[in-house]
């Protein structure tokens, strides 16, 4: 089979649990060889979507293909070419690193499973730990092993569900370096995350909240598409004053969001004129510095989430 | 500093900590509906079931009759046998070979032979002998019926005008306790224990296997891997067959060395049918595993299945003593068939031909369990 240019294409996916819609009418397209970031708050439907993509959940309605296979009827074929890394560590804790890898290699019919496992141990930098029980590895190593287990059968698509939750910054950076290496080799990666810095490492992102896909595109496109106007306020006075200012601004009309960032505040609004009117009384204060700034991805997401919540309730 | 910080924090007292734990446990128990339901239903169900089913002085035991002559005397003896309510004639035999076979296969617990020339000998006062052979593998089942035979001699011919009243008994009953002539309990219990112990260990091995994957979270990645439910099931059952075989060897060796149980039949046949029995139990345990939501429920289901296996299989109490409905339940339990198999092979030297019905029943139960398990196994997380 020649690889089509599209890895994932789904339309109108909907899934309910106990009468509650967890994913609503979700459509998305992921091009081959890209790293696609899947962002959204807890309980927004990211895991459910990923599980529908690899055939672990059946959508209530909607259709789609994953690597050209129908997600409803060809789950068996999808499983052969997709590596799925679960949110919770789901390798056998009472098997050693090597035994876990060998198990997977055998299931995929890889010749010389033992050799394949040993090679992967080397690639993961786990030499000397092959006989250690997977359950006794630290969080960062567990995550590395889980990724290794997913990539062992050389899949065409990786589905990673919050792979870096609870992992230290250095391990996260190494993890992402590896993801980029894999993508450069032609692998498609769909990765869900909470971290904004990780979102910025993706080629494309999608933001999902309360089951709805709210925004998608490159990071710059998503920020530009938000229509948010942002000012940063840095205080020369003490931080107590800045917190007080934050509370006052939050109540002011035209201000949609105020968020403290270290010694400064991010003040955002969708209407430039209204926002400027709101901050005007404080701009004369010599101890405060107002500067126009580009909204950060986080600003955009919090804003999207707040608006989605308003619609949701 | 707020007021809360300045307040001295003390550990709660012993009883309050115990109380906190008790409340937490009760709350968790309340959420587990299945456990709650089984807590009420298991004791009630089993009490009623076993209360009505178990009978240690069984009546109406299956009896086969070989009439070497057709005479009124013979018929009135058979009538008297049935009148004791311990015997129930289920089959009329036509040859000596059949006589031996019904006992070997367990089709009948007793076989009665009225020899040729019995009536004539009786009329002449020659005290002819009547042969009653009993399958004594289970002394409990046949004991009370054999005890009732003494009275039979006195009453059997009371109404038969053909025979002159005599002060001494007119005939003799020759009892023949086959397979376990001395009525040694161990000879009966040890082979049965082989089945009971295997049932318990095999069920629990596989009963936990799927729920354990679910509880530990490994099920999610297992489902994402290219492996089918049938392959998962076979992969989980096969290793335990080896363990079961090892256990069976251990029990049999101990039975021979410690309890002097003779193994009369073919060891190869015993090994073959024991393996089948082990696989059947593993398949049933695996089925529980696909139905239970957690390991606790799986263990409860196992216990719920284990108890009738012990009480209604004929291992502990005579199978023929149970009412018909209980016997039908018993026929659905693998241990019932295995107890018959193991007693027949070890004590009676039965062959495969004698046991093909029991073997087919075990295989049938295994296939039913496997079919349920494979269809019940959820391939998705829906």
From TrEMBL, chain A:
Q: Which Pfam families match?
A: ABC_tran (PF00005)
> What are the ABC transporter domain coordinates in residue numbering?
8-235
Please name the InterPro entries in this protein's record.
AAA+_ATPase, ABC_transporter-like_ATP-bd, ABC_transporter-like_CS, P-loop_NTPase
Alphabetically sorted, this entry's keywords are: ATP-binding, Nucleotide-binding
- Give the GO molecular function terms: ATP binding; ATP hydrolysis activity
Family to which the UniProt record says this protein belongs: Belongs to the ABC transporter superfamily.
Q: What is this protein called?
A: ABC transporter ATP-binding protein
State the organism of origin. Blastochloris sulfoviridis
TrEMBL record, chain B:
Name any one Pfam family assigned in the record: ABC2_membrane_3
Bilayer disposition of the protein: Multi-pass membrane protein
Where is it found, in Gene Ontology cellular component terms?
plasma membrane
Q: Chief localization class?
A: membrane
Tell me which residues make up the ABC transmembrane type-2 domain: 155-380
PROSITE patterns the record matches = ABC_TM2
Q: Which family does it belong to?
A: Belongs to the ABC-2 integral membrane protein family.
Write the protein's name: ABC transporter permease
Instruction: Output one GO MF annotation.
Output: ABC-type transporter activity
Q: Which residues form a coiled coil?
A: none
Localization annotation = Cell membrane
């Amino acid at each position: 089979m020649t690889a089509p240019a599209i890895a994932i294409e789904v339309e109108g996916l909907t899934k309910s649990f106990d009468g509650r819609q967890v994913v609503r009418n979700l459509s998305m397209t992921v091009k081959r060889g890209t790293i696609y970031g899947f962002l959204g708050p807890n309980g927004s439907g990211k895991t459910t979507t990923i599980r529908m993509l690899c055939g672990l959940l059946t959508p209530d309605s909607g259709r789609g293909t994953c690597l050209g296979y129908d997600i409803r009827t060809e789950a068996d074929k999808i499983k052969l070419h997709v590596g799925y890394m679960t949110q919770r560590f789901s390798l056998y804790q009472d098997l050693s690193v090597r035994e876990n890898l060998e198990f997977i290699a055998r299931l995929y019919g890889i010749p010389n499973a033992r050799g394949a496992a040993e090679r992967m141990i080397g690639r993961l930098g786990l030499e000397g730990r092959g006989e250690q029980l997977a359950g006794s590895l630290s969080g960062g190593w567990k995550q590395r092993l889980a990724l290794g287990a997913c990539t062992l059968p050389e899949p065409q698509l990786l589905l990673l569900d919050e792979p870096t939750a609870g992992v230290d910054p250095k391990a996260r950076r190494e993890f992402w370096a590896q993801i980029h290496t894999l993508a450069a080799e032609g692998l498609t990666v769909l990765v869900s995350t909470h971290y904004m810095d990780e979102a910025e490492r993706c080629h494309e992102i999608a933001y999902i909240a309360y089951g709805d896909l709210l925004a998608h595109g490159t990071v710059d496109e998503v920020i530009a598409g938000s229509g948010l106007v942002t000012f940063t306020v840095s205080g020369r006075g003490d931080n107590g004053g800045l917190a007080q200012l934050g509370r006052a601004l939050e109540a002011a009309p035209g201000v949609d969001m105020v968020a403290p960032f270290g010694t400064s505040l991010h003040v955002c609004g969708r209407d430039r004129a209204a926002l400027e009117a709101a901050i005007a009384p404080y701009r004369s204060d010599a101890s405060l510095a107002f500067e126009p700034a580009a909204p950060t991805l986080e600003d955009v997401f919090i804003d999207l989430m707040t608006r989605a919540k308003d619609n949701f309730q | 500093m707020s007021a809360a910080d300045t307040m001295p924090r003390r550990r709660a007292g012993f009883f309050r900590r115990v109380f906190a734990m008790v409340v937490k446990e009760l709350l968790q128990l309340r959420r587990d509906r299945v456990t709650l339901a089984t807590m009420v239903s298991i004791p009630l169900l089993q009490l009623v079931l076993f209360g009505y089913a178990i009978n240690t002085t069984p009546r109406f035991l299956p009896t086969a009759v070989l009439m070497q002559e057709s005479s009124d005397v013979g018929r009135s003896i058979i009538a008297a046998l049935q009148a004791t309510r311990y015997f129930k004639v289920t089959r009329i035999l036509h040859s000596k070979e059949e006589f031996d076979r019904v006992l070997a296969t367990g089709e009948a617990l007793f076989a009665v032979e009225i020899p040729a020339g019995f009536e004539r000998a009786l009329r002449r006062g020659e005290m002819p002998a009547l042969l009653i052979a009993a399958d004594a593998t289970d002394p409990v089942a046949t004991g009370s019926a054999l005890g009732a035979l003494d009275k039979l001699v006195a009453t059997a011919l009371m109404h038969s005008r053909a025979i002159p009243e005599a002060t001494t008994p007119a005939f003799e009953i020759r009892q023949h306790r086959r397979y376990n002539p001395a009525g040694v309990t161990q000879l009966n219990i040890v082979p049965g224990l082989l089945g009971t112990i295997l049932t318990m260990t095999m069920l629990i091995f596989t009963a936990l296997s799927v729920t354990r994957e679910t509880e530990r979270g490994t099920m999610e990645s297992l489902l994402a891997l290219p492996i089918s439910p049938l392959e998962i099931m076979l992969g989980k059952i096969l290793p335990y067959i080896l363990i079961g075989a090892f256990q069976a060897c251990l029990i049999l060796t101990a039975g021979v060395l410690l309890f002097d149980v003779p193994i009369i039949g073919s060891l190869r046949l015993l090994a073959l049918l024991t393996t089948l029995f082990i696989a059947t139990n593993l398949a049933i345990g695996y089925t529980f595993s696909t139905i239970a939501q957690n390991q606790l429920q799986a263990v409860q289901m196992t216990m719920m299945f284990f108890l009738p296996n012990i009480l209604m299989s004929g291992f502990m109490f005579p199978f023929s003593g149970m009412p018909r409905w209980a016997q039908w339940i018993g026929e659905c339990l693998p241990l019932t068939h295995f107890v018959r198999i193991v007693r027949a092979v070890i004590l009676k030297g039965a062959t495969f031909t004698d046991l093909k019905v029991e073997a087919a029943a075990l295989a049938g139960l295994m296939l039913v369990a496997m079919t349920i398990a494979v269809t019940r196994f959820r391939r998705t997380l829906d």
